[in-house]
Amino acid sequence: MSSRGQRAQGPWTVASFVALATLTLIIFWSVGAQFLDWFSLDLGSITTMSAGYTYFLLFWCLFGAIAAVFFTLAFAHLAGADWAQETYAQLRATSDRHLMLAFSAIAFALPALLYWRLFQGVHLTDDESVYRFSAELLASGRLYADSPPMKLFFDHVFMINDGKFYSQYFMGWPALLAPWVALRVPELANPMYSALTVPAIFLTLRELAGRRCAVIGVLLFLSAPMIHFTAATQLSHTSCLFALAWMTYLTLRANRGDSSWWLHPGIAVTFSVAFFIRPTVALGMGVPLLFVWAVSIRRISPQQRLGAVLGFAAPALLFGGAFFAVNALQNGSIGYVAYQRAADYARENGFHFSAWSSLSDDWTPSFGFESVGVALARTGVSLTRVNFALLGWPCAFLFLPFAPWQSQKGWVLWAMGLGFTLVHFNLRSAGIDTFGPVHYAEIALPILMLSALGVARLTSSLRSAEPSAFAARIPVALCFGLIVATAFGYVPVRARALYELSDVIRRPTVASREIAEPAIVFAYRPFVPRRCASVRHFVFAHEVNDPDFENPILWVNHLSIEHDQQLMRRYPDRKGFVMLWGTDCQPTFLPLTVAKELGLPDAKTGSEAAIPSPEEMR
Q1: If you count Cβ atoms within 10 Å of the first and of the last residue's Cβ in the chain, which end, N or C, has fewer?
Q2: DSSP letter assigned to residue 164
Q3: In Å, how far are 59, 63, 170, 500 from 29, measured between CA atoms?
Q4: Phi, psi of 38, deg, nearest 5
Q5: Closest by alpha carbon to 374, among 422, 433, 432, 425?
């Protein structure tokens, strides 16, 4: 066939593949529209996947994979076009600095946009409000506030209220959030830390396998739905991933033989920050990196080795001392963490407004040391959930078998992933399903970088084994094919579920703008009824008030009308309201006097014990 005939055939070939991919996605959406309520996900499980989500994944695995193959063939043909080659040449001419700036800007903009447009500016979990409270405490120079009088009104899931009022969470993420709280833009903290993660991934992969692999890794990071959904929240996982990404890069530079003095304190700081945020994650992924660092300093001169050890030890000891000091000041003992104190406080408090209805005496926070079979099952379920939620692909682990082990220091990334999995082997659950398995969020770092290495290695192997340039284009084209298919199949379904959640959760805040301030609003538990959303949410309690309890509207627990009236006597300048949800799932605010006339029922506090008298709530 003549070259003219080949050029004429190209556009039609690409168009045919795109049309077939589009038809496949149309069939996928038709199944959802006709039989599965537009793929209503019925999210909410913290262990195995719910029925609605499983049905969605069943059809997505088939039709999403087929659509991705057709898109892949289209991209592989497009890559041979003259304009594509010119575009690629222009990208190659772009400096690494400019690429990182552009990619970082995208990594910042995506979660910021998701927070304001998709999440509608609300917290989708109780944890976010708790973290914000801790950040406000730190911004005011405190580790805890004084418990208010009649404290049961202010009890809150994930909070300790035993005379000191503080959260069960470690203070690393609140410390990183505190400056943004002081600037009154806490919603921009995680988008910024996500953006700052991009250079670390780029530089690490460039160090391991070159510039092309670095670009692939960053594109995978930018296309991962779970990364951006999580970064749009005020949860701690994004900042922990940020710290570990930079620790990885600094460690590999030190292992290469770089003699820069700041690498060693930098490794200590990034590990310590990650440990202060999420200790188990830092241990699982950071200890393999510390091993690499320890081996690397054995190869330098004794004088340099002493400087490296001292440079590492100084910040490590400083952060370690701060960690133990926080435990002592908050909980009364350097080895007694707030998670343990929260469990003990729940027992002491009769489990009123607690995250648990009961706890065994040998309970370990988040971890359940049971049989190996149970642990293996939990790990299998967790990794399955990661597989779908991370990239939205039918198989997120597709390129891992092609990632190197011994060459290019690939074993370091494998060790990080294996270390994370081993440390979390006995984890009771992989976390809520709102954004994906959040307790496994940080494993995204080694998975994405190993996937990029796998793509690069597979491309090189095909280029060496197959003289056809078309075959060598398949791995990268497959990445783009999966990304595009996911953008039009998986992501809209996930986004719809999150929008439905945010629309329900924001209603009390929107409705409360109509009541006179200053006020106290008494809320039943759960704060948002589950019946009001087909997607199961994890908002059980109202927002935590500011540390000084001076918000224009104080949100408190409704106990009984008599108890509520007792609290109002302590706040004579505020008006009291009880929030109720109507059959239309819209909240209304009844003045406390009207609520008394209606004889509203007492609260269900989550405890079998009776509500104590006001005099006992000290």
Answers
A1: N
A2: E
A3: 10, 10, 43, 19
A4: 55, 40
A5: 425
Number of neighbours of residue 495 by Cβ within 10 angstroms: 15
pTM, rounded to two decimals: 0.95
Provide the H-helix boundaries in 141-188.
172-182
- Is 456:472 a contact under the CB 8 Å cutoff? no
Backbone angles phi, psi at 557, to 5 degrees: -80, 135
| pLDDT tens figures, 415-438 | 999 999 999 998 888 998 888 899
Q: For residue 402, which of 463, 447, 456 has the smallest C-alpha distance?
A: 456
pLDDT single digits (tens) 272-281: 999 999 999 9
Residues recorded for the chain = 618
- Other Cβ atoms less than 10 A from the Cβ of 538: the count is 20
Delimit the domains of the chain by residue range: 3-93+489-501, 111-123+168-465, 507-616
3 state DSSP class of 165: strand
Could you tell me the two tokens for 366? 């988040």
Question: How far is it, in rounded angstroms, from Cα 430 to Cα 236?
Answer: 15
Name the residue among 130, 142, 135, 136 with its Cα closest to residue 168: 130
Read off the pLDDT band of 364 (50, 70, 90). Answer: low
Written in H, E and C, the secondary structure of 472-512 is: HHHHHHHHHHHHHHHHHCHHHHHHHHHHHHHHHHCHHHHHH
Phi, psi of 523 (to 5 degrees): -115, 140
Closest CA to 222 of 436, 413, 483: 483
User: Considering only CA atoms, which of 460, 447, 438 is closest in space to residue 414?
Assistant: 447
